[in-house]
User: What shape does this take?
Amino acid sequence: SVDSALVQRAIKALKQLGVTETTSKKTIATEANILNRLGVECLVWGPGVSVGNSYAPNESVRMSDLLMAVD
Assistant: This one.
């Protein structure tokens, strides 16, 4: 939930770094669903904007977004 303490801390950290956050709820394939079923609150975060090509041969992310994520 966007209201959870974990998500709010992540949003605060991103703002401190000057990153504009966008929160959304998506159905994707990660291990987070397994951990969540065990009662572990999870946050999946990645660089860039999802452009509808996830898990496709042409999946991509802008280099500038990737570099910002690793800084």
Observations:
- The longest helix spans residues 5-16.
